């Protein structure tokens, strides 16, 4: 099973250059509801191995 946590993702939203306060509030709402851009992440394969002290450590395959 792979679990991917995306901490900072790019949102599919374009901000305007100038706003009134009402327009800014409207675009903030649009940003909050915009989808995250679909991009591909390379997830490394990892495993566990014992080090020279016999302790388990994470190792990339």
- What's the total number of strands? 2
Query: What is the approximate shape?
Result: rod-shaped
How much helicity do the residues have?
10-25%
Please count the helical segments.
Answer: 1
Strand order of the largest sheet: 1-2
List SSEs in N-to-C order.
Answer: HEE
- Indicate the structural class: alpha+beta
How many domains? 1
Secondary structure elements and pairings:
Elements: H1 21-32, E1 46-50, E2 56-60
Antiparallel strand pairs: 1-2
Quick summary of this structure?
By secondary structure, this protein is α+β, with helices and mostly antiparallel strands. About 20% of the residues lie in helices and about 15% in strands. The protein has one domain.
General description of the model:
By secondary structure, the chain is an alpha+beta fold. It has one domain (1-61). It is built from 1 helix and 2 strands, in the order H-E-E. A two-stranded antiparallel sheet has the order 1-2. Strand 1 (46-50) and strand 2 form a beta hairpin. The protein is rod-shaped, with a radius of gyration of 21 Å. The two termini are 16 Å apart. The model has no long low-confidence stretch (mean pLDDT 83).
Entry keywords:
about 20% helix, two-stranded antiparallel ribbon, alpha+beta, 1 helix, 2 strands, rod-shaped
